[in-house]
Design a protein that fits this description.
Length: 482
């Protein structure tokens, strides 16, 4: 990831380099009384990639939260959550991302600069947060755990020492100097900004009641590379949204709506945080979270096999998808911020070969050539219905602890357009991992999680799966306005 960062720096982007010289790049790669937070997620079509817990002045759920319901909508690149920040409130939509910790928002109505984000220039989702317009906004200081976390110990020097903090104040955590600017790296992009505190507002179970979370810590980002929209991090680190709300020792669940609901403002995917997300779920299939010593804040699971079709044929999975090497590379990352499932070579090509052997439809090679997908078929469709049921091979993932996830119809082969001349082109929405990438050996993406309730039981360190009609689940949570 570091090589990606420095590869795009040029003279005209000199401010990124200067910032990196004194900040550290932070890489993505029990209460007895039930308390919960329920949010709605909107869908957006996207393409790819041991620290102390603290709530740091944020009230615990028992003091401030019962159940919260936020309608969220889906757009082009992922599942969106709306953040109500500041005084008076400013509404900023950001991606819900289980593959990172930091929550950040674009800052500055005119000054926010996104490099290589031309596809989003006219996107109405790009709303910026203005700290100067909020009476409750202030910059975080060097004396907080959040500042220590964003500037990780990878650096050979302490950024707060450079900022002027004495050793005694650093040891006591009392330095009041502003936390230096940070650089945060993702698989395909970089953001730079400052840690900011402000009031976050969420809705209780009664939509007419608003609860305030004072001093919520987030990144106020002024410059990015290929990251046009903010992110709400749901990882296991202290900066994540569940951690700051006090739910990190409980859990959360989501049920992603299918792509057919994309851009539908009347329905959103349910995201539940707290006891309600994990209570009465012991009957489901759970696979253990794998512990990676190098990347402890990410959610890893172990893949044992993949079954294709209704036969006993199984594709053997490399051990790297359930084990880590001495550098912490390996395992399968479950990530809502990556759209499609990614598998390593040669395993990925072997899976394609098995799928081809079980399908009799003609290949749509011209679609394969102009898209990022490697296996597309022309499927007969005399009724001109995109959602027509087909007999393309089914795919089932088998994770550790005998946990199986049979991908629902449409979660593997997906129609790339409207029917034409009695056929519709469907492509396998899997991709191969880039060669030479450090980090996870594979990624279980959000597209393959559609119409599946995914439960993150953080207390018992396990992840559960349950096939579900997410549109019906949305309606049961009151997130369907139709």
């Amino acid at each position: 990831m570091a090589s990606l960062f420095f590869s795009f720096l040029t003279t005209c982007y000199l401010f990124f380099l200067i910032n990196a010289l004194y900040t550290i790049s932070y890489s993505r790669a029990r209460e007895m009384i039930p308390r919960s937070l329920t949010l709605g997620l909107t869908h957006s079509r996207a393409v790819t990639p041991n620290q102390q817990q603290t709530v740091d002045s944020v009230k615990k759920p028992s003091e401030s939260l019962d159940m919260i319901l936020e309608p969220l909508r889906e757009v082009r690149d992922g599942y969106l959550i709306s953040l109500n920040l500041g005084t008076p409130p400013q509404i900023i939509q950001v991606y819900m991302d289980t593959g990172s910790d930091l929550t950040w928002v674009p800052c500055g109505n005119l000054s926010f600069d996104c490099i290589e984000c031309n596809d989003y220039r006219n996107n109405r989702l790009i709303a910026s947060f203005s700290p100067s317009f909020s009476s409750s906004s202030y910059r975080d200081s060097c004396g907080t755990h959040f500042c220590l976390d964003i500037h990780s110990s990878d650096n050979s020097y302490d950024s707060c020492t450079i900022a002027g903090c004495s050793l005694s104040t650093l040891l006591k955590g009392t330095c009041t100097r502003p936390c230096p600017s940070f650089t945060y790296t993702y698989g395909g992009g970089v953001v730079t900004g400052t840690l900011t505190r402000d009031t976050l507002r969420v809705h209780g179970s009664n939509q007419g009641v608003t609860r305030e979370i004072p001093k919520y810590c987030f990144g106020c980002v002024s410059s990015t590379y290929r990251e046009p929209i903010g992110i709400a991090g749901f990882g296991k680190g202290p900066l994540s949204l569940p951690s700051q709300l006090g739910f990190l020792q409980k859990g959360f669940s989501h049920c992603f709506l299918a792509f057919e609901f994309s851009n539908n403002p009347n329905i959103s995917s349910p995201l539940v945080i707290g006891d309600l997300a994990i209570s009465s779920k012991d009957h489901l299939q759970f696979t253990p979270m794998l512990k990676c010593p190098m990347y402890p804040n990410y959610y890893y699971i172990g893949l044992e096999s993949i079954t294709v079709g209704n036969t006993s044929l199984a594709v053997q999975v490399p051990s790297s998808l359930r084990e880590f090497d001495y550098l912490g590379n390996g395992g399968m990352l479950i990530d809502s911020g990556t759209t499609y499932t990614h598998l390593p070579e040669p395993f990925y090509s072997q899976l394609l070969s098995v799928l081809q052997s079980l399908s009799t439809y003609p290949r749509a090679r011209e679609v394969e050539a102009r898209s990022s997908f490697d296996l597309c078929y022309r499927v007969p469709n005399l009724s001109n219905r995109v959602e027509l049921i087909d007999d393309l091979p089914s795919i089932t993932f088998h994770f550790l602890n005998n946990t199986s996830v049979a991908l629902p119809q449409g979660n593997h082969f997906y129609a790339m357009g409207a029917p034409n001349n009695g056929t519709v082109v469907k492509c396998l929405l899997f991709q191969s991992m880039d060669d030479g990438d450090d980090g996870p050996a594979g990624i279980f993406g959000s597209f393959q999680q559609q119409n599946v309730e995914v439960i993150y039981d953080l207390e018992k360190e396990r992840i559960g799966f349950q096939p579900m009609d997410c549109a019906a689940a949305s309606a049961s949570h009151g997130l369907d306005k139709t």
